[in-house]
Amino acid sequence: MKSGERQPAEDESDLVRRLGVGDAAGFDALFEKHRRGLFAYVRGLVGDYGVAEEIVQDCFLELVRNGRRIRPEQGAGGWLYRVARNRAIDVLRAQALGPDAATRESQDGTEGECLAAPGPSPDQDAIGRESAADVRRALEMLPQKERDLLLLRYFGDLKFNEIARMRKRPLGTVLWQATRSLEKIRLLLMDKDKA
Amino acid sequence: MLVDGDSRLTPGLRDHLAGCTGCRQLAETVASLDQLGGQQRRMDLSPDTISQTRLLAASLLAGQRATVDRPVFSPVSILRFLSQPAFTALAAASILVAVGLLAWRPGSAASGNETTSMTAREIAAIESGIGQLAGSLDSSLKGFRERYREIESIGTVEAMGASLKADIVSCSMDIRVELSNSGGDGDDRT
Questions:
Q1: SS3 letters for chain A?
Q2: How many CB pairs under 8 A join A and B?
Q3: Which of B26, B40, B57 sits opposite A61 (nearest CB)?
Q4: Does B43 sit within 8 Å of A35, measured CB to CB?
Q5: Residue A53 and residue A37: Cα distance in Å, rounded?
Q6: Is the CB of residue A64 less than 8 Å from the CB of residue A104?
Q7: Cα distance between residue B116 and residue B106, in whole Å
Q8: Contact B34 A189 (CB under 8 A)
Q9: pTM of the predicted model, to two decimals?
């Protein structure tokens, strides 16, 4: 299995159980397994590298503190992404309420809840700088819930059934929401091509 | 194009995408997001943050293990507590009080029945002892509850045990003093 590639949540029950009894090896395995996906997801939400790092670190420490309360059969992934999302939203709200919020909004044309401007990334080599920026911009234009779903799927690399479990929604509903969001992105990218 | 190179496409789907612009564009969108996400996941936390997180987690886990290894009330600690001299003294005092209660027959003193061996002073002392025992135990329990809340945060069973022991010693001493003061000298019989 490639580094950073995720295993099904079912395989995590033993790791969560070990974490619950204070086993550092259990934590290391979960940290290794989830940190890149979680970091990509949080960066997609908040944009800023440093802020994303802080949130991810915070999430994992929270995982240690609450390890005993997590049901092993549910795995740690859904729990981590839920905590990360809440933290990211707190940060974005604080930024939106901050003294420089008005300036930032007028500069990037986004509202407080939208994606922060992404930092530099090495994603330009394959799909091209312009194309990556277009996809990012299209993502930013989606409502927060729709954007969150796509970030969980494509940045966090969660399976749709994991997202459905995390959001406590039927799989069919989540798939329908994802298709609708993808369709919106497609139209946004088409509009950009026409312009 | 991203979609054309995707090995997950079945021949049938590939044919469909070749002829359907809408689906093809949607597939391209998915492929772009997929690729962008994959590239994002290749990025990692800085080495400093990784090592710092591991250290902090190890420290938290060590703290949790220490708490798990230190049960507040284990059977052993309860047995140790019960075997302490203070508890034995309290039990002895309780037996004395119980014997006194059994020996006391209401009305016997008032009727002047000489068959009873207890004087009014003895009865009063026993009653006083019982009241004091109840009061002391009540305050001990209150103190115990307060200390239990303390040890929940600091986790020192020993501190709580020593303090409770002091309360019980004090309580049993009071009763013994009361009983010894009650005399048995034969005076004041009714």
A1: CCCCCCCCHHHHHHHHHHHHCCCHHHHHHHHHHHHHHHHHHHHHHHCCHHHHHHHHHHHHHHHHHHHHHCCHHHCCHHHHHHHHHHHHHHHHHHHHHCCCHHHHHHHHCCCCCCCCCCCCCCCHHHHCHHHHHHHHHHHHCCCHHHHHHHHHHHHCCCCHHHHHHHHCCCHHHHHHHHHHHHHHHHHHHHHHHHC
A2: 120
A3: B57
A4: no
A5: 12
A6: no
A7: 11
A8: no
A9: 0.57
Secondary element (H or E) of residue B145: helix B120-154
The string of pLDDT tens digits covering residues B92-150 is 777 777 777 666 655 544 444 444 456 677 777 777 777 777 666 666 666 666 655 65
Q: For chain A, list residues with pLDDT below 70.
A: 1-11, 97-130, 193-195
Which chain B residues touch A135 with a CB distance below 8 Å?
Answer: 29, 32-33, 36
User: With contacts defined as CB-CB under 8 Å, which chain B residues touch A56?
Assistant: 45, 49
Residue of A nearest to B59 (CA): A24
